[in-house]
From TrEMBL:
It is found in: Secreted, Extracellular space, Apoplast. Its EC number is 1.10.3.2. Its cofactor is Cu cation. This is Laccase. It holds the Pfam family Cu-oxidase_2. Its main location: secreted. The lineage of its organism: Eukaryota, Viridiplantae, Streptophyta, Embryophyta, Tracheophyta. GO terms for molecular function: copper ion binding; hydroquinone:oxygen oxidoreductase activity. Binds 4 Cu cations per monomer. It catalyses: 4 hydroquinone + O2 = 4 benzosemiquinone + 2 H2O.
Length: 571
């Protein structure tokens, strides 16, 4: 240990013994009123559902170790739940939020107090609604600062700014998905992408709705990037500036520098932006547009904001200044995405060790992709060949029950709610990424996997080419996982494990499974409860690309899920 580090450690110990409150944790209280409010975007005024009339919603700010209490009060006619995306929820599964998984929805006029403690995480996460498509307007940042006596493992930024990507529909997103589920066709794509709720100058009537980041020369800014987008992965770049990525999904990483990054729905990442050492007399666009590999239509528009240098004299921004634009990869740049994804490595120093499971207790192989379900009799459907679109894991299109699975599990009432026979491997293997089978029909049901406490799991997520190979950002609740391997084509259980990274793999909660490829993840099932795993493309989740794990209690009291809070909503 260096003398400086030793001094820092001693100082930390001194501070925490002499001034306990200085290093101790606190409780953070928030009230989220779910309300309707009117917003004008793209030449239209419409009513949206928001938290406290703010869009994007309010920031949750806490330090590692803090307890967070959020009272969510539902004043709208829709059922609502809120998910604290990426929060580990150690033994607090009742506060995780996905509707009909860990709780029944908060109905009109009801409230629910989400109660959780932030353990072993620091960086950026976000919260969002977790029922139907309400998260299109119900989202906001979660900022986890290091403990009071700790600092960042990189230079302290001059300023920190949340930058949230979203997707905007002129129509009501609830109507969009309800209609699509009715007809079986693909839902209408969004009308705009947004940065902090603002579409920017490339859309009609939107110049005044443009995100502006005003900076001083010669400083380091930390952008807390969050993708709250619904159905699209986004490339992001800032003209004439590079970004150093230092954190992903609230885990520090080995820093690397890039001009362009990709962020999938559900991912968060902190980047350092060094401003020019001088006043450049220019304005720089920051822009995002999609990476898309699927078939069919998608929102191919571009959101932009401005990076503006404050003139030293304090003069206002000169409108005639030259504007530089970033160049973004073509929409189908799978090569870029694969290279970029591989650059993420855990920081893995003595303080933040990547605890990747070295020995695997249970192996799973899940195919993920699209499919079809039959059109109801006497109806016409707009999905593939007159069927309805579906999506599945191991050919099971997951059907949410009408009561919360966690309650059913905890009170041993699972009969008629779910079964515990989710297939570990595909029941009928095929060439997953070759010519797709003619039969695209998937089965449906509510099937779960049961894991004993502290099981180490290795899971291969294999994309399929059924109805088109497409990348899928898979999100696991309740755990971070390590991405130990990835590749294109079919996973080869004999060859591919030899190349697994068991030293410094990236640890995160959402990973893009490559279009026509696979990823291998490992996690330790150390958190008792029922944990959702799903594609973070909302359309694929709606079609059934989701499942859940039950992690049983361990023998010790500290390894058991406590009972639900008495005020938990009922179905
Ligand atoms: C919102 O807009 C609707 C019309 O689109 C209008 O009827 C309503 O009064 C507005 N509400 C508020 C709070 O401004
Ligand atoms: C929050 O949860 C903790 C741990 O279960 C519990 O001790 C505490 O009483 C809860 N707080 C509130 C306000 O419900
Ligand atoms: C921005 O980048 C462009 C293209 O690389 C270059 O021509 C221009 O001089 C740069 N402008 C500034 C202010 O750095
Ligand atoms: C998407 O838009 C870009 C221009 O912004 C255009 O070059 C490209 O051809 C479009 N791609 C598709 C698939 O429409
Ligand atoms: C800044 O650039 C603009 C347009 O490129 C030019 O008109 C103006 O004179 C420049 N100002 C300074 C202080 O260089
Ligand atoms: C990806 O990386 C490989 C090897 O470094 C390189 O040859 C290739 O050009 C890169 N592809 C893209 C699209 O950046
Ligand atoms: C679910 O599967 C049943 C047969 O097991 C089928 O009749 C039904 O249409 C399927 N529903 C959906 C939505 O795919
Ligand atoms: C479908 O239509 C036929 C003829 O109109 C009718 O006899 C039958 O009951 C209908 N089936 C369903 C499931 O509605
Ligand atoms: C639709 O049907 C045609 C002809 O039967 C077949 O070639 C094609 O693969 C089918 N497409 C899908 C998406 O099932
Ligand atoms: C799977 O299909 C791909 C593409 O058609 C082909 O290259 C590969 O050899 C096939 N693999 C097997 C095991 O049949
Ligand atoms: C799929 O259908 C085509 C034509 O309908 C047929 O030639 C082919 O053998 C079928 N493939 C499989 C795997 O059944
Ligand atoms: C709201 O949730 C309750 C409980 O699950 C359910 O009975 C009710 O139908 C839902 N209401 C709406 C409008 O979806
Ligand atoms: Cu999520």
């Amino acid at each position: 240990m260096s003398p400086a580090a030793m001094a820092g450690l001693l100082f930390g110990i001194l501070v925490s013994t002499i001034l306990p409150e200085f290093a101790s944790c606190m409780t953070r209280h928030y009230t989220f009123n779910i309300v309707q409010h009117n917003v004008t975007r793209l030449c239209n005024t419409k009513t949206i559902i928001s938290v406290n009339g703010m869009f994007p919603g309010p920031k949750i700010v806490a330090r590692e170790g803090d307890q967070v209490l959020v009272n969510v009060v539902n004043h709208v006619t829709n059922n609502v739940t809120i998910h604290w995306h990426g929060i580990r929820q150690l033994r607090s599964g009742w506060a995780d939020g996905p509707a009909y998984v860990t709780q029944c929805p908060i109905q009109t006029g009801q409230s629910y107090l989400y109660n959780f403690t932030i353990t072993g995480q620091r960086g950026t996460l976000f919260w969002h609604a977790h029922i139907s498509w309400l998260r299109s307007t119900l989202y906001g940042p979660i900022i986890i600062l290091p403990r009071r006596n700790e600092s960042y493992p990189f230079r302290k930024p001059y300023k920190e700014v949340p930058v949230i990507f979203g997707e905007w529909w002129n129509a009501d997103p609830e109507a969009v998905i309800n209609q699509a589920l009715q007809t079986g066709g693909g839902p209408n794509v969004s009308d705009a992408y947004t940065i902090n709720g603002l579409p920017g100058p490339f859309y009609n009537c939107s110049s005044k709705h443009t995100f502006k980041l005003r900076v001083k020369p010669g400083k380091t800014y930390m952008l807390r990037l969050i993708s709250a987008a619904m159905n699209d992965e986004l490339f992001f770049s800032i003209a004439n500036h590079t970004m150093t990525i230092v954190e992903a999904d609230a885990v520090y990483i080995k820093p690397f520098t890039t001009n362009v990054l990709l962020i999938t729905p559900g991912q968060t990442t902190n980047v350092l932006l060094e401003t020019k050492p001088y006043y450049p007399n220019a304005t720089f666009l920051m822009a995002a547009r999609p990476y898309f590999t699927g078939q069919g239509t998608f929102d191919n528009s571009t959101v932009a904001g401005f990076l503006e240098y404050e003139h030293p004299s304090g003069q206002s921004f000169n409108k005639r200044m030259k504007i530089f634009k970033p160049s973004l990869p073509p929409v189908t740049s799978t090569g870029f995405v694969a290279n970029f994804t591989k650059k993420f490595r855990s920081l893995n120093n003595p303080k933040y060790t990547a605890r990747v499971p070295q020995i695997v207790d249970k192996r799973f192989f899940f195919t993920i992709g699209l499919g079809s379900s039959p059109c109801p009799q006497n109806s016409t459907c707009q999905g593939p060949n007159g069927t309805k679109f579906a999506a599945a894991i191991n050919n099971v299109s997951f059907a949410l029950p009408t009561t919360a699975m966690l309650q059913a599990y905890f009170f041993k009432n699972s009969n008629g709610v779910y079964k515990t026979d989710f297939p570990t491997y595909p029941r009928s293997p095929f060439n997953y990424t070759g010519t797709p089978p003619n039969n695209t029909k998937v089965s449906n049901g509510t099937h779960l996997v049961v894991l004993r406490f502290n099981t180490t799991v290795e899971l291969i997520l294999q994309d399929t080419s059924i109805l088109g190979a497409e990348s899928h950002p898979l999100h696991l609740h309740g755990f971070n996982f390590f991405v130990v391997g990835e590749g294109f084509g079919n996973y080869d259980p004999n060859k591919d494990p030899r190349n697994f990274n068991l030293v410094d793999p990236i640890e995160r909660n959402t990973i893009g499974v490559p279009a026509g490829g696979w990823v291998a993840i490992r996690f330790l099932a150390d958190n008792p409860g029922v944990w959702f795993m799903h594609c973070h493309f909302e359309v694929h989740t709606s079609w059934g690309l989701k499942m859940a794990w039950i992690v049983l209690d361990g023998p010790l009291t500290s390894q058991k899920l406590p009972p639900p809070p008495p005020e938990i909503p009922k179905c």
